[in-house]
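DEPOSITED CHAIN:
***
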Amino acid sequence: MSAAASPALAKAAKSAERRGTARHPIHVPLDVILLRSGVPENLPGRCTDLSEGGVGAMVAGELAAGQQVAVELRLPHVGVPVRVRAMVRYQGRLHCGFEFVGLAADQREMIRYWANVDAMQSVKAEPAKVVDIPVAVPRAPAERAEWPDAKFRAPRKWQYLAAGLILALAGGGWWQWQRSWRELETTTVAAKDVPLRVTSETMALRIVSRVEPVYPDEARRSGVQGWALLDAVIARDGSVKNLRTISGDELLVKSAMDAVRWWKFEPYQLAGKAVEVETTIPVEFRMK
């Protein structure tokens, strides 16, 4: 581990001791949405642990402590994705810690429900303990093996174990690093009942027709401008099937949704077949 990463992870360990909520291990894809120079960017990642206060994850990108982002993840046994604003608390060698900001009551209940179901399944899956009772069994005298070379002896079991332990210690760090990258590479694999996640840049190139949003008069008078980030499900025929808010001023978001719901996209194809996809649509409002 690098010298720069060690203080960050040490700080994370200290903060973990002060947490008031328990964290549970979880391995599901995670999307991190942030603004760089005013442009939305999606970073793929994978959750490692989750609580009502925040989430730990491996993220394929650079983040800074104190940075404001939006995170999205889908919990097992919960049909609605969790989307919430968060603050980056630490990052070290792909590992990030996010603290939830303004977690809604319904999202908190989703996390609690998942934690309870996961705990019950873990108890059911725990195998029963089996106690071995030694029984003396008569054994037939084994014949002595004859070796071509009297100096050669077959390796004993402890020698195999020792060799395996040495290899594990020597290559453990490398294998752990490779496993982390393999997990990140699988974040784009979607379940059959979950739409395929596609980046906003990819879907922007497939827009066939679009309706420009109307700048709300109240927002213009108040000098409100910026980005409205929407989560959209695009149907197989290219129409906008569903829209959800990620972030943005309430007035701007409403106007953006009224316009985007009429957008039309070129159907996204996978293996020559049109599929339903989910993406992020950024809409900018800027006064001239």
